[in-house]
Amino acid sequence: MQNFVFQNPTKLVFGKGMIAKLAELIPAGCRLMITFGGGSVKRNGVYEEVCAALAGRTWTEFWGIEPNPSIETLRKAIAQGKAEGVDFLLAVGGGSVIDGTKLISAGLRYEGDAWDLVRRGSWSDTVPLGTVLTLPATGSEMNSGAVISRLETREKYAFYSNFPRFSVLDPEKTFTLPEHQVACGLSDTFVHVMEQYMTTTGQSRVMDRWAEGLLQTVVEIAPKILGRERDYDLMADFMLTATMGLNGFVALGVTQDWATHMIGHELTALHGLTHGATLAIVFNGTLRVLRDQKRGKILQYGARVWGITEGTEEERIDRTIARTEEFFRSLGLSTRLSEEGIGEETIAEIERRFNASGVAHGEAKNVTGAVARRILEACR
Ligand code: NZQ
Ligand code: ZN
What we know:
The chain is an alpha/beta fold. About 50% of the residues lie in helices and about 10% in strands. The chain has a six-stranded parallel β-sheet, covered by helices on one side. The protein has a two-stranded antiparallel sheet with strand order 6-7. α7 packs parallel to α11 (about 275-290). The two termini are about 35 Å apart. The mean pLDDT is about 95. 5,6-dihydroxy-NADP (NZQ) binds near residues 38, 140 and 177.
């Protein structure tokens, strides 16, 4: 196990009716701005519950943070927040609203254009924020990451700033999610764990077992959730699994990959494909191309998550990769680029972008432009 320092300061406030706790969680007397997406919270009672919890307080609102939040929208929120002297933020929505609000919280303390912050990759001087999460997927509610897009140039980059002070997670508030968002959330959760697990064996028994526990939970609950979404206990397990999948807990002292995500972000930037949908396509390509480098871990994952223990090593690896692709298909997601009408032009552009920025992703730092091309060709 590698050395590590771990601290996750986010207070998780979990369960039915917990939005009422906002009154205690948000400091009295702060100049509060509440941020929202496109309006789903007005249709599922979340907005009313937030307003009821904060009755007697004043706040300002910013609406319209879109899926894959854009710098173009967030600049407007930052300008509004500066004009109103905002010193506390509450993000109410999915990962996009939370991610966008993380950039707002940094932008409020920065004099220049907030896109500079995104390109720097991190910024620590921030206004505090809390969240009310309505979509289990990204883990943004309990991590310091955000992913910000620029529509003008069709770019999308990760940015790191502050952990939410608190996040309220009420599984009942996920009942209104469209089926496709649920599927993408399950896919995202599964691949987050994989990015921290599917590397090499023998680094940490406890990280392996925690990661496999989360993967097994997703596999167990996915068909049930897609069959009857309004089950509270299922959605509670889904929500907690998504949070635990990307709050640092399964990454302690182990190497991480993230190449699938980096390629997936390019697919979203270039084609607008939903984040979880990009991962369902790219991940099987990553496994195919890096099967030798990851062979020990693929065998372990195949045995422990899918019970694949019979046959030669090559046969077990083949079956494990096929089983993984089947899992994404069972969520109703595409697993091939061609199904989304994506071809050579996009592959060439992603290769060009990776080469131009000189990146080398993955636990072995070998996913360059050329390897990204091979991965995309393997999931064509
Ligand atoms: O905008 P509204 O009207 O609220 O509707 C949203 C949106 O259209 C809707 N929705 C959310 N909760 C709902 C609901 N509809 C009905 N009922 C509810 N309870 O769902 C749509 C998608 O929301 P979005 O926030 O975009 O989804 P998600 O949470 O999957 O976030 C995706 C973004 O997070 C980034 C992705 O790249 C993408 O930009 N990620 C952030 C990460 C992080 N911060 O650590 C890590 C991830 O790997 C990911 O990259
Ligand atoms: Zn993700």
